[in-house]
Amino acid sequence: MAALAAFGEQPSGAGGLRAAARALAGDSWPGFVARRLARLLVSLAVVVTASFAMIHLIPGDPVHAALGPTADPALVAARRHQLGLDRPLPAQYGSFLNNLFHGRLGESIISQTPVSQIVSDRLPATLRLVAPAVVLILLVAVPAGMIAAVLTRDGRRRRGELAFAATTGVLAALPEFLLAVGLIALFAVTWPVFPVAGQSDLSSYVLPVLSLTVVPTASLSRVVRVEALRVLREDYMRTARAKRLPARLVYLRHALPNLLTSSLTIGGMLFTSLLAGTVLVENVFAWPGLGSTIVQAITTKDYPLVQGVVLVYGTFALLITFAVDMAVAAVDPRSTVRGN
Amino acid sequence: MDTKSGYVPAAVYPVRRRRRLFVVLAVASVASLPLSGCGHSAAKGAGVGAPSVSGKGDPSATVTIGIASDPGNLSPTTALAGTAIELNGFAYDRLIHIDPDGRVVPGVAESWTASSPSASSSAATFTIRPGVTCQDGSPLTAEDVAAEYNYIADPKNSSPMLGLTVPVTAKATADVAARTVTVTTSAPAPFIVEMTQLLPLVCRKSLADPAALAKTSNASGPYQLSEALPGDHYTYTKRAGYTWGPNGSNNAEMPATVVFKVVANASTAANMLLAGQLNIAQVNGPDTRRLESARVAKQSTLVPFGFAQFNEATVRPTADAAVRRALVEALDLKQIGSVATGGTGAPATTIGELAPNPCTGDSVTGNLPAHDLVKAAADLTAAGWAKSGSGWSKDGKALSITQVTSSALGPDASAAYELAAKQWSDFGVKVESKVVDATTVVTTLSGGAWDVAWIPVSVPLPDQLTRFYDGPAAPNGTNFGSIANPDYTALSKQAMAVAGKAGCALWEQADAALVKRVDVVPIVSNQVGYYGKGVAFQVDGSGPIPSTLRAS
């Protein structure tokens, strides 16, 4: 706290504490960052505890799943003891937290491989799908939504508006795996332009990234269009147009920054939802990522693996939200995200 | 009574994942059982059978095989997953192999003898082929094989191979000069030779640190692991100087490189086969139609699939044989089996033994009661039940049963067992369904609150089934249905004392006794189909057989 308060005025004694408290509660950057960090840590603790509680409270036994229903009861008991599963739940939670603080994620019960190794093997593959997908979504959806808004503002081009709304509506409603299967049927089986599945050269990225991007692009472009319509009706936009500024300046300098707040927020949420939503796409494209790993881990109740992967996903989701909050606060000084 | 381990591939996973080999370690509960009739018996073998596939192949080709899940830890003495056992089949050789007709074919052991010196012990001697080497250049000798036997048999090492490939209580000694390994047990192990078909041979050095082989190999077989990318692919390259395949064959005609690619989705595997990205993949379900119409060649192996067992604990209505008989007569098993396998199954001929198996006889056909509603009603009436209104009751208690089905067997099986429930309720039996998965099946069966379980139990050898249908009930044992069938007990006891294939007739009689008393109801076997393009091969329970792989 003292370190944080040092950002503000020179603290001394009780006055210093009060200053620190003011800094934490008020509209200052250090206070904002500190509050967000504290919230991040609390959220992480909740994620860790919830994942532990959920996977342990659902009935079922990972040792039976690993050894098979024909396992000898004595062997099952020995293996449960070896894994510490015969101890009371609070004790198991205690040692789980203890291991976590020491950076130990344990070993998968089913595949007998360290969880940290599984995560470090699989996460990069998932990120290599998700990162280009997010960039592509933002690069396509924002201009598309803006162009649609410009062309259809003030009730112009009713048919165009209908066409845009219908197309993006249909695309946004498509299930990802259907799209993936359709893309494979067209571009890998009927016309073998791209490989059917697997991670190899650049061409192997085209279909999976495309099946990840189409749906979010359609829904984001609808949001951007509505936001852009709102911005285009603002007084400063009318003023800019009245001053006969070139279109480039009107839209890029005056309209775009005012759109960014919402686009950034949605973009951050997109990134997190895509990270976890790659499960089906990874499955269809035999992609060696983390999404398929967690499904299998949950169905076999592979405790260490589920906890490890949930922790990684949770940390990513929370960090991205944190980063987006920071970015929004920095980009838009009027944003209320920093409090009043 | 010897307790053995088994695995239940058919029990807990949908077809593509079903081959996960559930290996179980059993601790022997050795009881000296007096036996009459069967004394000393012996089986000898050397050079029987011919290599099942020979033929020309492109020795420089790369063959890519799709696997449904990542194998995880590949260490041969600790690996559990079915895919790990499939991969290890390429890198680690076996003492013997079993051909499709159930005959034992020499592998690293050029000859062997097996015997049952007494009713409660077994012995086998293997003569190890000279010139067998491991990947690091060290020779694989009788001493290495004996060391591996003793390592797995030591309960301290908790190897899941114990009871599955190495009999419990096994002790091995080596005679270096004669190149022989002698294995003795103090518990009956009738298939002491046959069970080694799944024992991956390793050099002694690898026993000291099994974890070192988790993602690499020290191969004794035709291939060695050259690249492991978990979750993506595993590449195996052909070893030079390999001459100890089945019947002394070499790997000259086998493809230079075999790549195992992890493809979890069956439709994706089918697409990759059609596009030429895979050469072999296991595909079941609707995707097979596309492959059939593209004339992709198929090899298949049958696994027990449609199967019911009854809970005969005294409090359950199914403790009464007449009730069990009537329940089976009330079902159209042919229809149920057809629904469960999507019309592609074959009538069951075993109560749970998987191919390749020394015992190839039929213990099921003709032993189950036929579908006959009139006779079912008569059987129930004779047993003291009366039909009032739409339901059967006895002493004021309605005939109500709980059936256990596994979600892991797939949607077709779920539909089939709903159909069974419908046929029973039409007959006047109240049916309640409980759905379990891989993590809850054992706790549910041990809990005892069930009457019929549609859970197949599959093992490689008949003696490994005894602890499911005889002996102590749960929670102390794995006789989940509390079955006490005197014929099965007596016949399996006799069969335990006969070494090898010679005991098959007794095992088949023992299994048939369970079917006749309606303790178990084997209905249908399901085809596990492997499709291959640009490649010839044969399959068994663990996947494509390495020695039969030929690229064209």
Automatic annotation (TrEMBL), chain A:
Q: What is this protein called?
A: ABC transporter permease
What family classification does the UniProt entry report for this protein? Belongs to the binding-protein-dependent transport system permease family.
Please name one Pfam family that this protein belongs to: BPD_transp_1_N
**InterPro entries in UniProt:** BPD_transp_1_N, MetI-like, MetI-like_sf
Q: Which PANTHER family match?
A: DIPEPTIDE TRANSPORT SYSTEM PERMEASE PROTEIN DPPB-RELATED
Predominant location category: membrane
What is its subcellular localisation? Cell membrane
Give the matching Gene3D superfamilies: MetI-like
SUPFAM superfamilies xref list: MetI-like (SSF161098)
The organism's place on the tree of life at top rank: Bacteria
Alphabetical UniProt keywords: Cell membrane, Membrane, Transmembrane, Transmembrane helix, Transport
Annotated signal peptide:
none
Q: Does the keyword S-adenosyl-L-methionine apply?
A: no
Q: Where are the transmembrane segments?
A: 37-58, 129-151, 163-193, 205-224, 259-281, 310-331
Q: Is Transmembrane given among the entry's keywords? A: yes
From TrEMBL, chain B:
Tell me the leader sequence span: none
Q: Where is this gene product found?
A: Cell envelope
Predominant localisation class: other
Stretches assigned to the Solute-binding protein family domain? 104-463
Pfam families, alphabetized: SBP_bac_5 (PF00496)
Keywords annotated in UniProt: Signal, Transport
Family, according to the entry, reads as follows:
Belongs to the bacterial solute-binding protein 5 family.
Query: Which protein, by its recorded name, is this?
Result: ABC transporter substrate-binding protein
Q: Which species is this UniProt entry from?
A: Catenulispora subtropica
